[in-house]
Amino acid sequence: MTQIFLYDTTLRDGTQREDISLSCDDKLAIASKLDQMGIHYIEAGWPGSNPKDAEFFQRVRQIGLKQAKVTAFGATRRKHSRCEADKNLQALVAADTSAVALVGKSWDFQVEKVLDTTLEENLKMIGESIAFMKGHGTETIFDAEHFFDGYKANPDYAIAALRAASEAGADFLALCDTNGGSLPWDIEAIVREVATLVPTRLGIHVHNDSGCAVANSLAAVRGGCVQIQGTINGYGERVGNADLTSIIPGLQLKMGYSIVTAEQLRNLTAVSRYVAEIANLKHDRQQPYTGESAFAHKGGIHAAAVLKAAGSYQHIEPEWVGNAMRTVISELSGRGNLITLSQNRGFNITQEEAERVLHLLKKLEHQGFAFDAAEASVDLLLQRGRIGYEPPFELMDFMVLAEERRGRGLLSEATVKARVGKEIKFAAAEGSGPVDALARALHQALCQHYPQLEKIQLTDYKVRILNTDKGTAAITRVLIDFHDGERSWTTVGASPNIIEASWRALSDSMEYALLGFNKNPEQL
């Protein structure tokens, strides 16, 4: 079967997303992961545009990539100039990369209105620039910008642009759906036609403005493209580029191409989440293949079915891409969800225990709790539903004060009383607000007996008002994220009183931490 080449542009096109900014060290770290993933080309930036990209091309030689060809990006020469005098092309030569990608116009409208030059001059710009880079012994890819729009408007000129690059020695012609407005059947038909008109290998580079980037990329392969350009998680300008984390399993698991090794494919989810972490973005739970919810089952019928046969509601085995099946607990759950979740946690609950927990869970959700986003609270419900369970502490009462004091501004204080074994623990604390003071007081009270809680850190606090028509008497739902240096978890509380809702979520978080769900169940 034809070899398909993966071309990643996360480090160049991906960084054009408005909320992404990567340091040189960030880019080097991601490049190493992409190389391990089996990516063939890593487009890492435009060396003529900024010092950071120039630094990357110097330092990347030192990290020892095993497979990927580092690719520098640039544009064809300026109009009415010589390649030898073009600073952009000289910067590409100085970058000394295995490959370069040159972007040029293939739409007559763009040539005349944006470049403000003649159609003939643009063809010379393409051909001479490709020949210049090939003359330096560099593998050269021509990115035919706006190709599909250009082909629809003036197919003869769009093909002429490709032929100019092909005759100058381009190794690939990447057909670009720059505005992201094409549909899969158009992409496939046009690619198939182009493949009969030019001898050079074809690539595809599409954007996701119409929500079709992944489908368009796969359709392009059907039409004859052998190089697929995209980014990890679909990061990119406007609404993004084609998502390689969907394209790779699509090609390998659905279309039968051998793209990466089975081991590399199993690393897909880890790479997807790693890049999100480096980019300082929350990983999309609904991301196909790699998202936390990609193989999550919330409805009771679904959960019962996958317990009997996983394939009944899953299109692939999640382990193939390094993900895992999850059972999500909510008011839509049945006993099967709870039984499956307990098994995933390493212990079994009886039908009677599951029924009791399910009844409580649905009652709490009716009161405003939401457990599908707070798995730590679900774990606690399951543990508390087991016969013989003894909690590590009992909260007896608390008091929170908020007052304005002259000279000090608004002040919040909280006191907490808790029973730990046979001892009664008291603690008081001040905070920047009533919830902060309560969290500090609870932490102090429990740390007297459980010093391991010292490393627990609150990382996020989310509040949502549910029934806004009730005004200040509305139910408040609170979600709190904690981290202990090794794992993260979320707990939930709900009440018409925001302090009570927070109190519930805070105490659940401490109880969850003490139960150590990352340990063997027999140690609990």
Write up what this structure looks like:
The protein has helices spanning 24-37, 51-59, 87-95, 108-115, 119-135, 147-153, 155-167, 184-195, 213-223, 244-254, 262-266, 268-278, 300-308, 335-344, 351-366, 375-384, 434-447, 498-515, and strands at residues 5-8, 41-45, 69-75, 99-105, 139-145, 172-177, 201-206, 227-230, 296-297, 326-327, 394-405, 409-420, 423-431, 457-465, 476-483, 488-495. 39% of the residues lie in helices and 21% in strands. The longest helix has 18 residues, at 498-515. It is of the alpha/beta class and 524 residues long.
Which structural class best describes the helix and strand composition?
alpha/beta
Number of helices: 18
The overall pLDDT average reads 86
- Assembly state here? single chain
Based on CA atoms alone, the radius of gyration comes out at 29 Å
| Strand fraction | 15-25%
The total number of structural domains is 3
As for the CATH topology of the largest domain, it is TIM Barrel
CATH classification, class level of the largest domain: Alpha Beta
Number of strands: 16
Helix content: 25-40%
Most strands sheet:
8 strands, parallel, barrel
Neighbour order of strands in the largest sheet: 1-2-3-4-5-6-7-8
Give the overall shape, derived from the CA principal axes.
Answer: elongated
- pLDDT < 50 runs, ≥5 residues: 517-524
Question: Can you tell me the CATH superfamily of the largest domain?
Answer: Aldolase class I
CATH architecture of the largest domain: Alpha-Beta Barrel
Question: N-to-C terminal Cα separation, in Å?
Answer: 52 Å
